[in-house]
Amino acid sequence: MNSNFRLVINPFAELDLHASFEFYELQRDGLGKDFIKEIDSTLKRIQSNPRQFSQHKRNIRKALVEKFPFTVFFYLTGDLINIFAIFHFSRDPKRLVKRTRR
């Protein structure tokens, strides 16, 4: 992992993560833990090379999570990776607008 990049998960993304973990654990014992492992793997990929993920509107980048229908949205500013959403594919992307205002 490239230690030149610092990764920060903001409170909105933390809430996304917690709610999704709880949902999956209620579906099947241990599924929430599997979800967390996949998110962790995605965060490691982001931290190792954040520029591998395409840049979209307003410098937003996104990484798809393997095995779960989620996208991790982040900004890259210098050496800081700001994770601002861990979003299920079915959610309305318009809900991200408030989070993308800096």
Core attributes:
single chain; 102 residues; alpha+beta; YaeB-like fold; four-stranded mixed beta sheet; globular
Characterization of this structure:
- A hairpin with a 2-residue loop joins β3 and β4.
- The model has no long low-confidence stretch (mean pLDDT 89).
- The longest helix is centred in the middle third of the chain and has 18 residues, at 31-48.
- By secondary structure, this protein is α+β, with helices and mostly antiparallel strands.
- It is built from three helices and four strands, in the order βααβββα.
- The N and C termini lie far apart (27 Å).
- The protein has helices at 11-27, 31-48, 97-100, and strands at residues 6-9, 60-64, 70-77, 80-88.
- A four-stranded mixed β-sheet has the order 1-4-3-2.
- Helices cover 38% and strands 25% of the residues.
- It has a single domain (6-100), classed as YaeB-like fold.
- α1 (11-27) runs antiparallel to α2 (31-48).
Write the layout of secondary structure elements.
Elements: E1 6-9, H1 11-27, H2 31-48, E2 60-64, E3 70-77, E4 80-88, H3 97-100
Parallel strand pairs: 1-4
Antiparallel strand pairs: 2-3, 3-4
